[in-house]
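[[Local backbone shapes]]
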Amino acid sequence: MEYVMVCVGSMVILLWGIGHLISTRSVVAGFGLLSGDNRRIITMEWIAEGLTMCFIGLLVLIVTLYAGPHNLVSIIVYRASAWMLIAMAGLTFVTGARTSITPIKICPLVKSIVAILFFLGSAW
């Protein structure tokens, strides 16, 4: 069951990160007229968050596939990834989730659910 939880969580956060990367252009355009610097900063942040989520998803998936869910390294990776997602969810909750953009509003929930899956998958 731990295997399923971490694999599902890793795929969800990987796909959520890919969604971030794909939607970067439309998200930045949604801000309307921006200075060049502001456009680059928003683009950079949006890509960085997407890449971070992709990295977390791939890291957990690779560790699980090659080492299995029941060893110390896997447990450390799952828990560290979960804490990072909790931190990201907290940041998004106090900033982006207060916007009118629905995907950003549910982003803290997605990150928190995946973190819970990682925590549950690391319990042995």
User: Anything to note?
Assistant: The chain is about 80% helix and 0% strand. The mean pLDDT is 92.
